[in-house]
Amino acid sequence: MKLKNTLALSLAAVMAAGLTACGSSADTASAASPAADSTAAEAAADTAAPDGDGDPTTLTVAMECAYAPYNWTQNDDANGAVEIRGSSDYAYGYDVMMAKKIGEALGQKVQIVKLDWDSLIPAVMSGDVDCVIAGQSITAERAAQVDFSDPYYYASIVTLTKKDSAYANAASVADLAGATATSQLGTIWYDTCLPQIENANILPAQETAPAMLVALNSGACDIVVTDHPTGQAALTAYPDLVMLDFGGGDGDFQVSDEDINIGISMKKGNTALKDAINEVLATMTTDDYNTMMDEAISVQPLSE
Fold first, then answer.
1. What is the tens place of the pLDDT at every residue in 21-80?
2. Which of 6, 25, 57, 256 has a 20 to 30 A CA-CA distance from 83?
């Protein structure tokens, strides 16, 4: 691939520069001061670490590992799952599939880091991880803290309820009036969509997507709002649920493109990684994304 060759040449140039610096230090070791050696080492490390966390050989990716079909935790490497850092468990799902695709193009090994949703952006900002691939909407609020790649998925908004619910035949947001509702903490589903339901009884946000679904299935609420892939996955696990898709028109939840465009976040100013990831995404189509998502849904643990 042209991309892979270009990246390989770039990496080779970086490595060559690093080797030249090391050779020069060795030749003058008796004359060089420890401070000079330290400065040279730091400069070489900066040059060789365009990815974010200081290790150019590894693409370190943060995600919840609890958000099927985007990502989840399993106890083996079935289907190509990747071991989670500091754990004997493995992560898989659409986000892991995408991380592996990017890592392969960049010639990097993929390392998955499991974090709570609210810890994802701080991990990027601190440099603990290179990027977050976790079903994040590209919102203005997040973009003020981190940089985003081009979208790697487009997720429409849907509503889930029970088949015997008074809202099972709802055809628009207006038909959800008075519903007791919840969704996941820190998402546009909870912050933007639920307030659009007239006279809704909005419960506290749930920590995770699975917790949100448990609340609905247990009868703690009438409806939850989520995105289409999460809704599809939920129907597999909970056959008593029905998914309502209002079609994106005037009767649907009113959201902006940034709310449904899902991107990969990285540290502000890391243009090297951002450009490299965008080159990979540019080779893919919406059909490619949908095919990958369908595959993730078909092998998620909830489908077993």
1. 333 333 333 334 444 444 433 433 333 334 667 788 999 999 999 988 999 999 999 999
2. 6
* E strands present in the chain: 58-63, 72-74, 82-83, 90-92, 109-114, 131-137, 147-148, 153-154, 157-162, 180-182, 201-202, 223-227, 241-244, 261-266
**Structure-block tokens of residue 133:** 């691939």
Structure tokens at 57: 């050989």
Cis amide bond preceding 195, omega within 30 = no
Taking the C-alpha atoms of residue 71 and residue 83, their distance in angstroms, rounded to an integer, is 13
- Residues contacting residue 279 through CB under 8 Å, at least 6 positions apart: 3, 105
- Residue 10 CB contacts under 8 Å (≥ 6 apart), including other chains: none
- H/E element, 8: helix 2-27
Question: What is the per-residue pLDDT across 239-298, written as a single tens digit (0 to 9) for each?
Answer: 999 999 998 889 999 998 878 899 999 999 999 999 999 999 999 999 999 999 999 999
